[in-house]
Design goal:
The complex is a heterodimer of chains A (about 240) and B (about 250). In chain A, about 50% of the residues lie in helices and about 15% in strands. By secondary structure, chain A is an alpha+beta fold. Chain A has 2 domains: about 5-165, Beta-Lactamase (2-Layer Sandwich); about 180-230, Arc Repressor Mutant, subunit A, CATH 1.10.10. In chain A, a hairpin with a 3-residue loop joins strand 1 and strand 2 (about 55-60). Chain B has 2 domains: about 1-165, GAF domain (Beta-Lactamase, 2-Layer Sandwich); about 185-235, Orthogonal Bundle (Arc Repressor Mutant, subunit A), CATH 1.10.10. Helices cover about 50% and strands about 15% of the residues of chain B. Chain B has 10 helices and 5 strands; from the N terminus they run H-H-E-E-H-H-E-H-H-E-E-H-H-H-H. In chain B, strand 4 (about 115-125) and strand 5 form a beta hairpin. The chains are: A alpha+beta (about 240), B alpha+beta (about 250).
Chain lengths: ~240, ~250
């Protein structure tokens, strides 16, 4: 574990949380940093929707294959088990997991992953989701990584509650739904921008994120204004200068 | 998990329509809420980003009164839910924090006969259709199951209102034309949202109409919504704007 990167990450996360921030943008940053810090190939945050579904809130990559792996976990996989048990789930070698997860294990291997881990997002006695980590090489996650990973999952949970103090579980559910809807708006905006500028979804996301940061607008507000057409967004839809 | 809930909630809604002897509509969602979520009444307010709301339907006089109070006073769970794009759950209207939050609305709503109010925005990303609001005459929170059902009811109402709208480009028509099948709400997939965004450009329409047109295309082709969306995102499929319809006709 890179100690310096770890401390920088926590300074960066804390800095972002004290000013007005966009929760989805923040969680994307958190999954990016999780991937770097924990030396994993990909990281994603899945939230349990009270409708009865695990939904992706943020991921270190917008790769369709990775999103598909999250989707499968509505039926089987480490995230679902982690969510149900409230305990971390780790598989050091996915080649041995074909019986446990007949759809998930081969799909993950096909996507280039050999080991996987899910850490619970906990709030008191409630489990609200999981942080999912994928590695290209087989092997166990060591104790230090696990502790930092769990801390990152806890920060993700806290960030979801950041905008209002949490006194009741009612407030938690309000916040989670609002965050999930922001994610939908961002996907709609990605689609519109990708079509307009002939970009792939990953590129479209990066253009939106960069624009939001440079202009100091929340990513979800930008996404909504762009989809609505309710605000002039100078410079957004001109092709990025190369 | 979700598929089972969706099907069960839809059958409750469809049963209300059958009892009325009509095609499934938003008012059936309100009626279904009474049993599914165990509330005393429910009402639906239509509101888009273009204009302020009006009461679409209400199961009883108290629900109607609550909606009218919110429109008049400009405060309450429904306006807050529309702004927050998330539900507003007030399980006890006599609680001190509720009184602070809605100083005019809270006492008036209690006076009208409500002790708890739960408001659910009918929003799918940037799509805004209105708010589904429920009240209880006794205070008390929704349990996890009731919350899940209420969210699925709100999804259903949103789709019913969107597909019932008369789009210049031709909407999907009434839900009955889909063989009485539950609306395709059983999943939230990124590619559906991305494809909807792409269609605003391809068809030169607003996001609401793009959503309806995507679903209409899938139904007409008898294909799964996710497959059609996947083809659009992978750029294997493009939907073209209808040349007979002016581009701004549906905005």
């Amino acid at each position: 574990m890179d100690g310096r990167l770890l401390s920088e990450t926590f300074v960066e996360l804390a800095d972002t949380m004290v000013v007005g921030f966009d929760v989805i943008d923040f969680l994307h940053m958190l999954t990016d940093r999780s991937a770097q810090l924990l030396n994993v190939s990909a990281a994603g945050l899945l939230l349990a929707d009270p409708r009865g579904e695990l939904r992706v809130l943020a991921a270190s990559s917008e790769q369709a294959r990775l999103l598909e792996l999250f989707q499968i976990q509505n039926d089987q996989g480490p995230c679902l088990e982690c969510f149900r048990s409230g305990k971390p789930v780790a598989v050091a070698d996915l080649a041995t997991a074909a019986r446990r997860w007949p759809r998930f294990a081969p799909a993950a291997q096909e996507a280039g992953f050999a080991s996987v881990q899910a850490l619970p997002m906990r709030l008191r006695e409630q489990i609200i989701g999981a942080l999912n980590l994928f590695r290209a090489a087989p092997g166990h996650f060591d104790q230090a990584d696990m502790r930092v990973g769990q801390a990152l999952a806890d920060v993700a949970t806290i960030s979801l509650l950041n905008e209002r103090s949490l006194r009741r579980s009612e407030t938690l559910n309000e916040q989670l739904q609002s965050a999930l809807n922001s994610r939908v708006t961002i996907e709609q905006a990605k689609g519109k921008l990708a079509e307009r500028l002939h970009l792939d979804m990953d590129q479209a996301f990066n253009v939106l994120r960069r624009y939001a940061r440079t202009r100091n607008i929340r990513l979800s507000d930008l996404a909504r204004a762009f989809v609505d057409g309710s605000e002039a967004l100078p410079g957004l839809i001109e092709p990025p200068s190369s | 998990m979700l598929a089972g809930r969706s099907a069960r909630v839809w059958s409750l809604v469809a049963a209300q329509a059958a009892r009325r002897g009509g095609a499934v509509s938003a008012e059936d969602v309100c009626a279904a809420a009474l049993t599914a979520v165990a509330v005393s009444g429910a009402g639906l307010t239509a509101a888009t980003r273009a204009g302020s709301g009006h009461v679409m339907c209400a199961t009883d006089g108290i629900s109607e009164q609550i909606a009218e109070l919110e429109l008049t006073l400009g405060e309450g769970p429904a306006p807050d839910a529309a702004t927050a794009a998330g539900p507003v759950l007030a399980s006890d209207l006599a609680a001190a924090d509720v009184e602070i939050r809605w100083p005019s609305f809270a006492p008036a709503a209690r006076q009208a006969g409500a002790s708890a109010i739960f408001a659910f925005p009918l929003q799918i990303g940037a799509i805004r259709v209105g708010v589904l609001e429920m009240y209880r005459s006794e205070p008390g929170p929704l349990d996890a199951d009731q919350l899940g059902d209420a969210l699925v009811l709100a999804d259903t109402a949103a789709v019913l209102l969107l597909e019932g709208t008369n789009w210049a480009g031709g909407g999907a028509g009434p839900m009955a034309s889909f063989g009485g099948q539950p609306p395709y709400l059983a999943l939230h997939r990124a590619e559906i949202d991305q494809a909807t965004g792409m269609l605003t450009e391809q068809l030169q329409v607003g996001i609401e109409e793009a959503f309806v047109r995507l679903r209409a295309y899938a139904y007409a082709q008898e294909r799964r919504l996710t497959d059609v969306a996947g083809d659009i995102v992978a750029r294997r499929l493009r939907l073209e704007a209808d040349p007979d319809i002016p581009a701004d006709g549906a905005r």
